[in-house]
Amino acid sequence: MDTSDIREAASLGGETLRLKNYNRQLASLRKQTPFGQTPSRRRISLNSPLQENADPQKIAFLLHKQWTLYSLTPMYRFSHDNFKEYSRLLNAFIAAEKQKGVAVEVGKELNFRVTFSALLGMKGTQRDPGAFLVQILSKFQTSSKPAEDRVVWTGWFCCTSGDSLLESITEDFTCLPLFLANGAESNTAIVGTWFQRTFDCNFSRLKISALNLSWMAALWSASSLDHHMVPLEFLWSVPCSPHSLDISYSIHPDDAQALWNHVHKTLEEITQEEVDLFIDCLCSHFHRHFKIHLTATRLVRVSTAIASAHTDGKIKILNSKYLTGVLALLTELAIAEIQ
C-alpha cells in the first residue's frame, strides 16, 4: 500500500470511533504507555483571551504563517524604549553583512529598512515582558507603480506565562525565551548574530519532541472550536531504505473530541497518562484497520484547527482565540531548553 492509499484510507471522516472497544483496552494501556515516563501534569489554559490592547492587524499578520522556533537566553541590558536606535544599528549591520564586511555608515539610505515595534496583548501574566516584532522591509518598484515596502522577513520575541524563568533573573536581563522567525534563513542568521553580540544572549533551534507533539494533539483536541470543523491530523515517518515512508492519519474532530472526553477525567488539568491513552487508542484503531504498528514509527507532525506543529521546530498558528495558550506552551518548551 503506497502513501496515498494509506492517507485516503486512514481518514475516518464521519465514522464514529468505537469507544466501547477501547473500554477493554484502558486497563492494559495504563501499564504500557509509549513513552515510559512518570506521568506529569499540565493545567488547561489554552483559551486565555488576548489582552484588550492587542492590535488586531498585527495578530492577524501572525496567523497562518509557518514560523521556525528558537529558544533565547535572557538579553543583557535590552530596553523596549530603544527600538528606534536598535532599528538603525541593525539596519547598518545587515547592510555590512550582505556586503561581506564592508563598513556601512549608520543612517545611510539603503534599499531596505528594519523596524522594531511592540507586540501588545500577548502576556500570560503581568510579570511577562512585552513581546516585540522585528521586520525587514525591502523596496519593490514596478514600471506602473511607485516604490513600496514589502515585508521580506519577520521575527518576534515573546514570553507568555514565563514565571518559572522570570523568578531567577536580575533586573539587568530581559527574558523573552521564545523567538519565532519567518523568512530567509540567511536573514535569521544575521539578525540572530546581531542580537547575540549586542545583548550577550544565545539562540538555539527549538525542536519539538514526539512526546510534546502528543501533548499538543491532546491539548488542542480538548479545546472545542464551534465553527471550525477541521480534522485532527497526524504524520508518522517510517524510516526505510532507500526512501522514508510517511503515513498520514486523519480523524474527524467529533471523533477526536469524543475519544478525548472518554480518557480525560479531570476538568482543570491534563495528565501524561491521559495523553498516552489518547494516542494509544488512536494507534490501536489504526492497527485494527491496516495492521500497521504506528508505535514502531516516529510522530513528526500534528495538525488541528488551533495550530499545526512539526518536530523540526516549525509551527503555524491558525486561531487567534487560542494564541496565548499556544504561546504559553511554546514558552514552556523554550524555557526547558535553556535551563
Report on this structure.
- This is Centromere protein L.
- Keywords: Centromere, Chromosome, Nucleus.
- It is found in: Chromosome, Centromere; Nucleus.
- InterPro entries: CENP-L.
- The protein has 339 residues and is an alpha+beta fold.
- It folds into two domains: 41-205, no CATH class; 210-311, no CATH class.
- Helix content is 35%, strand content 24%.
- The protein contains eleven helices and 15 strands.
- Strands 2, 4, 5, 6, 8, 9, 10, 11, 13, 14 and 15 form an eleven-stranded antiparallel sheet that branches. A two-stranded antiparallel sheet has the order 1-12.
- A hairpin with a 3-residue loop joins strand 14 (307-310) and strand 15.
- Helix 5 (83-98) crosses helix 7 (185-199) and helix 8 packs across helix 10 (272-290).
- Residues 1-39 have low confidence and may be disordered.
Note the topology.
Blueprint: H1 3-10, H2 19-23, H3 26-31, E1 41-43, H4 56-62, E2 66-72, E3 75-76, H5 83-98, E4 112-119, E5 131-140, E6 148-158, H6 163-166, E7 173-174, E8 178-183, H7 185-199, E9 203-205, H8 210-222, E10 232-238, E11 245-251, H9 253-263, E12 269-271, H10 272-290, E13 298-303, E14 307-310, E15 314-317, H11 323-338
Antiparallel strand pairs: 1-12, 2-8, 2-9, 2-15, 3-7, 4-5, 5-6, 6-8, 10-11, 10-13, 13-14, 14-15
Helix pairs in contact: 5-7, 8-10
